[in-house]
Amino acid sequence: MIKLGVVGANGKMGQEVVKMAIAAQNIELVCAVDKLNIGQNIYNDVYIEGDLNAALKVHDVDVVVDFTQPSTVFENIKIYMENKVKSVIGTTGLSDEQIMQIKEMSKSSNTGCIIAPNFSIGAILMMKFAQEASKYFSNAEIIEFHNKKKKDAPSGTSIKTAQLMMESNNNFKLGNCEETETIKGSRGGNYNQDGKGNIQIHSVRMPGFVASQQVIFGSDGQILKIHHDTINRECYMPGVKLAVEHIFENNDFVYGLENIL
Fold first, then answer.
1. Which domains, from first to last, does the chain contain?
2. Do residues 14 and 44 make contact, with C-beta atoms less than 8 angstroms apart?
């Protein structure tokens, strides 16, 4: 039985994780942490607690799932490592430098950690299809759509998609003319690493969306669009459960759910 803690338990994703844990036959919800509704009994005498460090010391937690905020997740991960509690991180907004630091912390503390920008199996397939298509197209851009309450832009999913695409093609935008933005930001953000990649990412934020992404490829005479829509947050739970089960059985560092599918 996997003893699970949920951090950000009152958030929209956290609530889904709690429901997943309650329904799963191999998972026991033992700890819930949030800054809101402290003291609330969310299930079977599991109460919302406000002090993450204290909660981990009191409860026998095997794995924690974190869906919190970009401003707090990095410090949370330090606490998981210090307490030697394995973690599944769904909060996005971590920088490349922070991810490398977490990888080193995971190794030095001998504590497993999975960071997944997206837990939807369909979204993972969208990323893999985009990676494959990148071998055959010289131009590509990404448009990602999220609800207006998402705080980080671009999304972790779009960044991970761009990283995978760059593994197949390190120079998009070939043949484009020299561009001038009459309104700053009109062309989105140029994602590149050491001058390579050059993938424009456009972020849309408005009510009505949960999460959607479109990768557009172009070459002379043709356009290829790879599109994924998230209709509700339940679709993430099979991926979250898979990540929890993996990190419970293993003690590695993983960035991207595609690496354990």
1. 2-115+233-259 (3.40.50.720), 121-230 (3.30.360.10)
2. no
